[in-house]
Amino acid sequence: MELRFQAGGGSAWTAGAVVVFLFEGETLDSACPELSEGAPWLLIAPGLRDFRGKKDEQALLYGPPSMPLSRALVLGLGKKGAGTFAERLEGLRKAAGAAAVRCRELGIETLGIPVTSLARFCEAGPDVERIIEEVVCGALLGLYRNRVFKSAVKKSEAAEGTGDVAPDPRWLGLLFCDATVPDGPRLAARRGETHAEAVLLARKLANTPANHLTPERLADEASKLARRHDMRCEILDRADIEGLGMGAFAAVAAGSINDPRLIVLEHAPAGHAEDAPLVVVGKGITFDSGGISLKPAAGMWEMKSDMGGAAAVLGLFEALGQLETPRRVIGLLACAENMPDARATRPGDVVTTLSGKTVEIVNTDAEGRLVLCDTLTYALQRWTPDMLVDVATLTGACVVALGNDVAGLFCQDATLAQRIKDHGECVGEPFWPLPLWDRYFENLKSETADFANAGAREGGACAAAVFLKQFVPPEIHWAHLDIAGPGFVTRKITNCPAGATGFAVRTLIELVS
């Protein structure tokens, strides 16, 4: 859906449907008095008599067809001031997505949102530019459909615009009262558009079946992105990984016919090439069977998205390229398949990591931490990061602890932890701090090696984080994000169908910005 801008006030606006958000008890003329010029019929629309503005309520109103604004879609947001500001912002994103989807279902090709009506959301929070960014992002995310591998629909069905084949609206217009469109709001809308495109890229990649997205093909996607945005991209193959001494990484890939890849992306704008970088590491297991410690069949198909962390990093770099962020950022994608065959790593095997520490692999299904530990070491040996963040669909234990909607945040740097938590809340990606205490290392003790890669089920997410902690010196500003719960959903949620969500992309963008 294209993004457009209109200036000149209500009498100059035109759209297939004008979209207005109302709190409980609000009247349309108080929320957006400018509509009295372009759509005076709204002030006496009978359909508003029964509209109460309750959360998720919708009303579609019709006026004279000859008028530039002949339809209005009114959406309820619930009680004004209810919940935290982050929760109200999430409600607004949800309503924007619902409006875009409703227009698609009705075959409405264009929709417009009066910007003046959005200023009401700035009483306790960011300015209207941030509100515009979130509304645009919410609308675009709401339209997402995972249809890449569906067979082509009949032309007649597409023409009818029925069901899942209905085309998206052609454009979303932001409607201004100013004589010209102000630069600030215009740029804010473009940021929202860029954020949405970054999230959608991550969703697309993490929804791609493993037979179509091997580590090699994921490396190809990274190379294309780098060429598109004039970034540096380096690809390390199996021989490189083994030659460097990344024994843990190589062990995960040993049983797969598809060779692993360590992908290195660098965003370094002019004047920032020598800056201490922010390094972001993503787990990129393109399929996780569990290896010899085979997973149960039920739900194993979801493991095509076990590269959700790497997808989030690629989404971040897509945004960096479009936003031209003045910050040096290194992205490392640790990509492999975890498969069982005659060459696969066995439970009880001992490997030597790039750091020189030895690990007894007691569970081959605890593979994510193995590719990450070597990649974290590689990052610290090659660069001196200003900040180091890894993001991974790492543990089912984190899902048990926090549920499907919240990600685990492991970080001993209180300032960095709070920044991640605040940014996540603002963009609708909630993180909750979990302990990174050394007592969890008791679960990882080994009689054979320096330590094991897994232990008891209890405290599993914390033990995994403490495993990674063994490879990061305490002076490094490091955070580990376990997105196993919100990274992939089996049912439709706000602005996302079942499947990959692109979780953490926007938090990473905010953190870098």
Based on helices, strands and strand pairing, what is the structural class?
A: alpha/beta
Give the number of helices: 15
Summarize the biggest pleated sheet: 8 strands, mixed
The total beta strand count reads: 19
N- and C-termini, Cα separation: 25 Å
Strand content: 15-25%
The amount of helix comes to: 25-40%
Radius of gyration: 25 Å
* Mean pLDDT rating: 94
Strands side by side in the biggest sheet: 7-8-10-9-13-17-14-15
> Segments where pLDDT lies below 50 for 5+ residues?
none
Which descriptor suits the 3D outline? elongated
List the helices and strands and how they pair.
Blueprint: E1 2-6, E2 17-22, H1 28-31, H2 35-38, E3 58-62, E4 71-76, H3 85-106, E5 110-114, H4 128-142, H5 155-160, E6 171-175, H6 183-207, H7 215-228, E7 232-236, H8 238-244, H9 247-253, E8 261-267, E9 278-288, H10 308-323, E10 329-338, E11 349-352, E12 358-361, H11 368-382, E13 387-392, H12 396-402, E14 407-410, H13 414-427, E15 431-433, E16 451-452, H14 460-469, E17 478-482, E18 488-489, E19 499-500, H15 505-512
Parallel strand pairs: 1-6, 2-4, 2-5, 5-6, 9-10, 9-13, 12-16, 13-17, 14-15
Antiparallel strand pairs: 3-4, 7-8, 8-10, 11-12, 14-17, 18-19
Helix pairs in contact: 3-4, 4-6, 6-10, 7-10, 9-11, 10-15, 11-14, 13-15
